[in-house]
Amino acid sequence: MADIHVNNLVFHMSKIQAELDETKRKLKQEKEEKERVLTRLSTIAGSKLTHNNPGIADLSDKNRPQKLGEYFSELYDNEWTEAVSGLTEGHGEEAAIQLLRDVLKCIAIKTKEWASKQYKSLQEALFQRDLRESEAGGFVVIYKKITELQKEVAKLSIANAKRWLKEDEEFRATYKDVLSFGEPYIDRSVELCWTMQIQDPPMHLEFDSSADIDKSVFRLFTRNGNTLDFVVWPALMLHENGPLVHKGVVQPLPKKKEDRKT
């Protein structure tokens, strides 16, 4: 009889242990599911917060806007300076400066076009159509992924952009001297302009200055003055109509010409 009681007790204990194990398993499963949901919600919230919001920077990104401002300054100090030196003998300094400015403007326009086309192609590949603006809000996380994908393949995209540019007959004919004396300047300009275009939102180069120089946006080149002669180097903005990241450079009119204008 005692054996029967012991066996019953063992059976009940085993049953209770099995139920306890099953309860623990379900609790663990529910906890993991809850964590997955919270992680997903956090990702969605983070994507909505950062999508088209350049004010929130990813400090781990070596190509975040502030770093691009530093690289853009280095382009002016290094490759631009060397290219001006090489072109000045045949063109004169002012013409050389304006030629290099126009090259950069051309590259900025073309990389904007190519990067936008790439983004749209990726979007259409995912959705099989071009989304209406009213639908876009529901796919913020996916839009963020498209931007991330563009960044992941940027090295290949930049190599293609350099090749497309140098195969462009109009570009080759117009800027053949820059290709001869300033190819490193062209290459680095493509790298930076492409990287600026795949920011979220894209960064913006401001090539235009009012006749009355805005010294909060542009610094002066080799002359003092308040009236614009020509733009030497564009200002870099966080996005179009956005805050300044790096000042541009302008050459004021000589003092006598400025006095005559006033």
Describe this structure in words.
There is one protein chain. By secondary structure, the protein is mainly alpha-helical. It has 3 domains: 1-50; 63-202, no CATH class; 203-262. The chain contains 9 helices and 6 strands. The strands form 2 sheets. A 3-stranded antiparallel beta sheet has the order 1-4-5, with helices on one face. Helix 3 (93-127) runs parallel beside helix 8. The protein is elongated, with a radius of gyration of 29 Å. It starts with a helix and ends with a helix. The relative contact order is 0.11. This is Mitochondria-eating protein. Its main location: cytoplasm. Residues 13-44 form a coiled coil.
The average pLDDT score comes to: 86
Low-confidence stretches: none
Query: For the report, how would you describe the main beta sheet?
Result: 3 strands, antiparallel
Which shape, going by the Cα principal axes? elongated
* SSE sequence, one letter per element: HHHHHHHHEEEEEEH
- Give the end-to-end Cα distance, rounded to a whole number of Å: 119 Å
Quaternary structure: single chain
Q: Which percent bin holds the helix content?
A: 55-70%
DSSP helix count? 9
Enumerate the strands of the largest sheet in spatial order, edge to edge or round the barrel. 1-4-5
Set out the fold topology.
Elements: H1 2-50, H2 65-91, H3 93-127, H4 140-152, H5 154-167, H6 169-174, H7 176-181, H8 183-197, E1 204-206, E2 218-220, E3 228-233, E4 235-237, E5 244-246, E6 248-252, H9 255-261
Parallel strand pairs: 2-6
Antiparallel strand pairs: 1-4, 3-6, 4-5
Helix pairs in contact: 2-3, 2-8, 3-4, 3-8, 5-8
